[in-house]
Amino acid sequence: MALKIRLARGGSKKRPYYQIVVADARSPRDGRFLEKVGSWNP
Questions:
Q1: What angle do CA 42, 5, 25 make, to 5 degrees?
Q2: Tens-place pLDDT, residues 1-35
Q3: What is 3-40's CATH superfamily?
Q4: What's the confidence (pLDDT) of residue 29?
Q5: Do 4 and 25 meet the contact criterion of CB atoms below 8 Å apart?
Q6: What's the helix, strand, coil split of the chain in %, to 5?
Q7: Is residue 2 helix, strand or coil?
Q8: Are 31 and 19 in contact (CB under 8 A)?
Q9: What residue spans define the domains of the chain?
Q10: pTM given for the model
């Protein structure tokens, strides 16, 4: 299983909020993840 560190998008329209997660490379952007590493609120 290949892992990637990626940003999972949350929040509402035009007000993004991202969670930095470790997920399987084949899973969708906002799908299942293994661990939450942090967050980013631009």
A1: 125
A2: 899 999 999 999 999 999 999 999 999 999 999 99
A3: Ribosomal protein S16 (3.30.1320.10)
A4: 93
A5: yes
A6: 0, 60, 40
A7: coil
A8: no
A9: 3-40
A10: 0.83
- For residue 2, report the phi and psi dihedrals to the nearest 5 degrees: -85, 135
Q: Which residues pair with 9 in a beta bridge?
A: 18
The predicted pLDDT at position 1 comes to 83
Res 35: pLDDT:
97
Of 31, 6, 33, 4, the C-alpha closest to 18 is: 6
Give the pair of three-digit tokens for residue 1: 């299983």
Token digits of residue 35: 């661990």
User: Helix count (H) and strand count (E) of the chain?
Assistant: 0, 3
CA distance 7 to 19: 6
